[in-house]
């Protein structure tokens, strides 16, 4: 049975054109084309789905449903913990939404030349921020980047243990544990967690030295750390790893790299991180994206699970194009013998990030880094003045810091409920993942937070705590 | 089937690499400095950053204005064919990405939503995720879906993680270390199985186009953890013995996973759970109308399973309690996280919007049209000189795809499938897709007509292949040196892989170009000397 009218998304939903096509191939009924499927595989009834909607009905329905959300734009938000609020220039949104590359399936280097070039420019600009020559196309998130990097290190060294900092996003750690495989598997990678010094929040070097040894494939730490801190021992950590013949893997937030050293400059071999701060909205968590970068050495290049884009000469002298590189080592080419696996990632976010980095330039990154560090430290000091609040690690952080409420006599959950009633999203509750930090929350302050925002937060917190 | 070919010329902007653009001192975006009271309070920035980690150098990024950046990327977007031409890229189910879906997904109620917000402030987003879950349950017969995977491969990996947790819960993981696939399972199935720590057993096809039951019986044992299979496969061949396959795998104690990559052919016609599968995945960026962005994503591999496997799914799950939606993360047997947060919620929204716009009738019709369109194209394509098809002796109609070969064309003219691919783009046509590895059919190509394009567009596609075949027989050099009407020419063979020339960043390129220039000079000196 045909629906009475053709569907706007389907050019061949006109019955007469279907008849033309059927006649042309000598088939009476479309059903005859499904003879490969045995009758007992077939669904015996029509699908039971909600009624189809016209575009206007759909719009009304979605607008109404979405209005039940209350966003970081409607509220004053201090949430970070893996995805952060930064300003996204309008030009970046215009670029990333273009139908041409939104709908592309990648063609060949000449037919999708513009998309390939934008991807190469993403890798090139990120390479400048990282001071690294080999940058892969994005992977799906920071956590998956870290997981792949640890597996790369295990293959590179032939070892099966890694040291990972305890002050890490629990979501990221969970992904890493999946990537390192359960103990029952033959290639299981043992994850040793390295504590942080409770006084400073920085990596416990004694424990690191005691843990790292002949079986260590990699040491993984982050700058800034999950708790926001800039660990000044970074070069020493890398030296400990190198002395043991292990790879140093550093996770980094690239928006910090206008003011913080590139990890390769303090000894990182493999650098991973997020690309979300580079011009990508939150998208309810759908804004995350990750990267992997190293020195341009065949030893590393040969272990990447990512897609690479290389600049290359075309057959016309003096002309350059861009094409996929080292595809032959991927799972597309080698199936189970490939390097981990490849597939859909977040390449549209590479387009957003390349536009963002170009708009920022060196001065933009330097300034945003300074502004964030200033605003975050000011906010921490301002909150630290309040009765009942302690800033656990009061200095030397980037955009996030730990706010402790133990002396307030209220849980983070209670405080955040009360803040929400004031139109404020308090920091992410750390109390269940980091019980040793007591009733603490991770507050994020970036370039978007003004002096008056912090005053508003301080006023609300004072009220909540004194109630 | 007689279409007149359009003249086409891609925009040629000769756009420099952005690293060569700009002028020192130009700015693309400004930020308000911290207020005086803040600067006064916190003092010098350099005192706030440990000296050992303060950046000393300036990253060599371009310095450009906002319009310079905007128009550079708009020019590049114009040099991207995408679906502006006709794209029938097989296995990827090219279909229209409705604008209303983009418009809704880019509303601030989604773009500015933080995934760690309190559930009370995310009820709209959670409702959409839950309603999409319910619709996929109806389409599949499964009991629960999760959307954490950022693509099909990651959903396949999710399946491997769930498989590990399931067998571990029974104390059998160490013993059950094998996953069975077929040579026609998408590469992500064996690849994720291996990355999850399993040994991969690959079944080859017999003359029917799918592996024999005997091959499967020989492969299963008490080491079998799971079967991962696509049906119909990428040649449009449906394995009618699949119920028996699932029974055999279950009898051996393994799980059966259905990679529904090719669901366009079978949606509304069958439900994976009723065939017996324990789990399946749907590609929301293929079958359900969300964009692919250059096999790039953000995408979503929606993973669904039977009640028995639900405890092992990644966390959190979106659940509905008395009219309110909440995130359930208190699930002790869960595999935890495959990727951070809830997945690409904006992609779920787009797929939800597509499904609501289609409705049950629309979905059934899309499947009908896809299979009709493929069979319609098959008649036109097989009439072209130099084109043959896999399993030529099979008499039943293929489903939504057919695997063809240019082997005859290559033998007779020297023009191969890669040449045809390039030449297609000279007609404003998105290049054909060949085949996943390994190429079971030599010089393969695999169009998938789908439901979006009209008969006229399909006729155009066929006409382009016919024209290229004629050119191959009359003037093969024209095809072998194509494209001629594109933004750039084809790349020098091997240039992107040779360690001496490949450069994945501008800084690597500068170094290698300099090195090559130097060695060129050295060689010249050597000649002079």
UniProtKB/TrEMBL annotation, chain A:
GO terms for biological process: nucleoside metabolic process. Residues 18-423 form the Glycine cleavage system P-protein N-terminal domain. Its EC number is 1.4.4.2. Pfam families: GDC-P (PF02347). SUPFAM superfamilies: PLP-dependent transferases. GO terms for molecular function: glycine dehydrogenase (decarboxylating) activity. Keywords: Oxidoreductase. InterPro entries: GcvPA, GDC-P_N, PyrdxlP-dep_Trfase, PyrdxlP-dep_Trfase_major, PyrdxlP-dep_Trfase_small. This is Putative glycine dehydrogenase (Decarboxylating) subunit 1. It comes from Palleronia marisminoris. The lineage of its organism: Bacteria, Pseudomonadati, Pseudomonadota, Alphaproteobacteria, Rhodobacterales.
Automatic annotation (TrEMBL), chain B:
Its EC number is 1.4.4.2. PANTHER family: GLYCINE DEHYDROGENASE (DECARBOXYLATING), MITOCHONDRIAL, GLYCINE DEHYDROGENASE, DECARBOXYLATING. This is Putative glycine dehydrogenase (Decarboxylating) subunit 2. One of its GO terms (cellular component) is glycine cleavage complex. Pfam families: Aminotran_5 (PF00266). Residues 161-290 form the Aminotransferase class V domain. GO terms for molecular function: glycine binding; glycine dehydrogenase (decarboxylating) activity; pyridoxal phosphate binding. Keywords: Oxidoreductase, Pyridoxal phosphate. It comes from Palleronia marisminoris. One of its GO terms (biological process) is glycine decarboxylation via glycine cleavage system. The glycine cleavage system catalyzes the degradation of glycine. The P protein binds the alpha-amino group of glycine through its pyridoxal phosphate cofactor; CO(2) is released and the remaining methylamine moiety is then transferred to the lipoamide cofactor of the H protein. NCBIfam families: PRK04366.1. InterPro entries: Aminotrans_V_dom, GDC_P, PyrdxlP-dep_Trfase, PyrdxlP-dep_Trfase_major.
